[in-house]
Amino acid sequence: MKVAVAGCCHGALDKMYETLELLQRRHNVRPDLLLCCGDFQAVRNEADLRCMAVPAKYRHMQTFYRYYSGEKKAPVLTVFIGGNHEASNHLQELPYGGWVAPNIYYLGYAGVVRFRGVRIGGISGIFKSHDYRKGHFECPPYNQQTIRSAYHVRNIEVFKLKQLKRPIDIFMSHDWPRSIYHYGNKKQLLKMKSFFRQEVESNTLGSPAASELLQHLKPTYWFSAHLHVKFAAFMQHEANSKEELPKATKFLALDKCLPHRDFLQIIDVEHDPSAGDSLEYDAEWIAVLKATNSLVNVTQSSWNMPEKNGLHAKWDYSVTEEAIKEVLEELNHDLKIPCNFTLTAACYDPSKPQKNMEPVHTINPQTTEFCAQFGLTDINDRIQQAKEEGSGRGECEEEEEEEMDSTGSAEEPSEYNTDNSGLSSFNPDEIMLDEEGGDEDLSTCSVDPSPDHPPEFSTSFSDIRIMPDSMAVSSDDAMDSNNEELEKSGGSKQVEEKSSTERSLKRIGGDENGNSGVKKIKRRNQAIYAAEDEDK
């Protein structure tokens, strides 16, 4: 079957679906499924905009609300993960996944589903070491810290995914797996994006948690977005035993959804011709959720997942074939995900704007039904209970006096090792400037797999590319390190404020007490954000 893959959507659903229709008209290619790798921005109303971590001047309604209201319907089944620019209050309603609109499905904090026999997994958010070991404690109304920590990846989601044993066909993450750039045309990437150089050469660009999952899951395809640059790589995995067959992953990062951007990719994926056209639960994933349900945490306390270190009676939560069989029997072997989308918030009305609409903590009926069916903890219900009980560790903090419209710069790296796998480096890609600095953006570029293996793209317009059968990369080229001097405009050194006339940047992360202060900002991030107005 044909699968379309998109990078950061940024709420431009009309543009994305119009591009697919153009593809069909010009090339007679109709995708059976659309995957989106984060920054989907399922914004329903003005309150949702207030829960999106972007400067105020970039909070635009876009077009998702038309699909939420029923005015429009997605022309192709769409499955997406969350990024770091989302209506976090909306996605938080569906921690285990669910429909955000008819024919548009969110995978949750982490999730695995099936479509026509193809197994699709994903993890939402981006990696930040200082939040990695916390529980999902955030809920609206968010403050300056929680509006960002709400989309930070947690160790429990990675732990759940690492319990999977059956092969994964496609996996999505928003930020790139750390080190993946060593398996593609790194020289060309650095030529186009010289401000990546320091982090690439120090091997700190990307998510160590995603890298750990890549090594464990070894999916056939891995798709990412976040950095707004197209990049392909090919990773050959080592076999864990003599009996295991060699596996390889084709990695592709997509650009963001804007005119004249290379933001869509079409791939052919082997599928089960006898399977139906409905999106289905994955029996092993449901069994893993049931097995790990006791590990659910809604506090801010840092904690490690169980490991074989003598401190835990149980550390292996992978499931048996018998447990998977029990899930199938519970469902009467009908894995079809019910089309139970429900409106849970008022929809934006252009004729009646409500700029003062406040976000509220909502328990979605889809999540209630899912948890009741499989005996799982409703995370939002648990948070609500903690709030009502006055639990300081689980309750939602009120908004600070300072408005959410103000934003800050990078948070400081954590001093502790994250989880039991030593994920201690922090991800510098989530940099927020002050309101006048602009939102995240990268200038346009498209990095091909290798000069020795050019892509066999058949389309003649810039928004769509057809993936070649092979994405193999020349090993010599992939490992080449270019030692030329950094371009002055794209260096990756940190820059401090040098005069009182420059606007001060506020640190949103702060220390453990939430104290703010002046913070350095990397020059590569200045280059990333500088192009935003050119795209508008």
From TrEMBL:
Pfam families registered for this protein in UniProt: DBR1 (PF05011), Metallophos (PF00149)
Biased composition (Polar residues): 415-427
Requisite cofactors: Zn(2+); Fe(2+); Mn(2+)
SUPFAM superfamilies, per the entry: Metallo-dependent phosphatases
Superkingdom in the source lineage: Eukaryota
GO BP, one annotated term: mRNA splicing, via spliceosome
Biased composition (Basic and acidic residues): 386-395, 485-510
Cellular-component GO terms for this entry: nucleus
Residues covered by the Lariat debranching enzyme C-terminal domain: 235-380
Spans through the membrane: none
Subcellular location: Nucleus
GO MF: metal ion binding; RNA lariat debranching enzyme activity
CDD domains hit by this protein: MPP_Dbr1_N (cd00844)
UniProt KW Metal-binding keyword: yes
Positions of the UniProt region annotated as Disordered: 386-536
Keywords: Hydrolase, Iron, Manganese, Metal-binding, mRNA processing, Nucleus, Zinc
Major localisation: nucleus
Acidic residues compositional bias, start-end: 396-405, 431-442
Sequence similarity: Belongs to the lariat debranching enzyme family.
Name this protein carries in UniProt: DBR1 enzyme
Species whose genome carries this gene: Platysteira castanea
